[in-house]
Amino acid sequence: MASSNKRQNKRSTALVLTEAVLVSYVSYIASFVLVSLQITAKPNSEALAINIFLLMMAILVCSLSVGLYETKLRETFRGIIRRIFVSLVLSFFIVEIVTSALFTQLDLDAYFLPTAVCFNIVTLVFFRYFTNRLGLMGLSSSRILVLGAGVRASIIESRMRRDVDRLGFELVGFVPIPGDDRQSGVLREKIIHVKVDDSFRQFLTDNNIEEIIVACDQRRGTLPVSVLFDCRLRGIEVTDLLDFMERERGQIVVDLMYPSWVIYSNGFHSQNYLRESVDYVLNITLATFVMFFAWPFMLITALIIYIDDGFRTGASVFYKQERVGKDGKLFNILKFRSMRPDAEKDGAKWATKNDNRVTGIGNFIRKYRIDELPQLLNVLKGEMSFIGPRPERPEFVQQLVKEVPYYNQRHNVKPGLAGWAQLNYPYGASVRDSLEKLKFDLYYVKHQSLLLDILILIRTVEIVLFGKGR
């Protein structure tokens, strides 16, 4: 079997070259359309060529930086659109700065750059759609084989049932390994009975397997290490089930974690010291910007809550509650009150869906996340970030630390107004729900980056606008 690394490099190279030609051509068409419609005068040919080249290079570099040329990118098409949008917007600012501020002799008509960027966004979205849909340029799903058909392997069957969950791969089947719990294991997927020995190599070649997922229930004495070693040398990817789920599902499967995986993974502490140092400044700037536009809605909300029951009960329109922040430090979170004043007369309780303690106006402001707006003050005080795991109450944290493994790791970063777990898991209020959300929270802690923050912000805005609050 040919080396998968070489095949992947060829795919990436072909994609980069094709998009370079496509961006250059579309940018020229944008200029041609503007001139033909007499919106702009005919530009200097040399300046136009340099601008097109700069835009093409900026788009390629930005696309590379957001992972669009990553052969193992496992993303829904909506996620790819977001990445294209972020890449093109960044490219616009880069070229604008270069041509307007640094090299004014290259500056073209003000309509050219935004028009070229818009044309390219549409073109690249359609191009990526058809290349992925039709499997052009080797960008279709890769063929994978799962070693194991027991309880651990069944997580793929149970949590990746839909076609959209398998967008990035084609599952050939599951190979039972001695020691697998077959009674509680894979039930509906294709089971392949093949010996994992020296002849296994031929099976992989005949079926064009590109990646092997190790998901057997017992490893000691049953895992064919020598065979997997040979496969790895021949260019076939060998991936642990935990890494596979982390990559494909954007979560860390806490209940299947084992100590050696934690030791050899890249950990759950941020190593990006520059990001940590500028994080507060970015959050302050963004909080101030949002506050500038949000304060009228906050004022109206406060008045409505006061009229609804505040005037009658004398209760504050705001609600302060102790929460656990970064490194376990306690702070008081500030929200608009959405429950009755006596909601916790019997002690702390989990908030539930359709909670009868929620007021009429409370249902509305929760649905559109308006009740969270006062937390901008927590951001300004440095107690919270815009993006991060949602802060939990200390009473619940004490319980969850005992019952949910690795729960304290979510406190390695500042809590946030919006989080990866809130986007990927429906509303829940139990230890089981906390375990499921923790899988996404730990993924964020481990993979936190500016791009991931931007993607979460974009999806959060979508949820707020369409009232899909979780």
UniProtKB/TrEMBL annotation:
InterPro entries: Bact_transf, EPS_sugar_tfrase, Sugar_tfrase_EpsB_2. Signal peptide: none annotated. GO terms for molecular function: phosphotransferase activity, for other substituted phosphate groups. GO terms for cellular component: membrane. It is found in: Membrane. It is a multi-pass membrane protein. Residues 281-465 form the Bacterial sugar transferase domain. The keyword Transmembrane helix applies. Keywords: Membrane, Transferase, Transmembrane, Transmembrane helix. The chain crosses the membrane at residues 12-35, 47-69, 81-104, 110-130, 280-307. Pfam families: Bac_transf. Belongs to the bacterial sugar transferase family. This is Bacterial sugar transferase domain protein. It comes from Glaciecola nitratireducens (strain JCM 12485 / KCTC 12276 / FR1064). The lineage of its organism: Bacteria, Pseudomonadati, Pseudomonadota, Gammaproteobacteria, Alteromonadales.
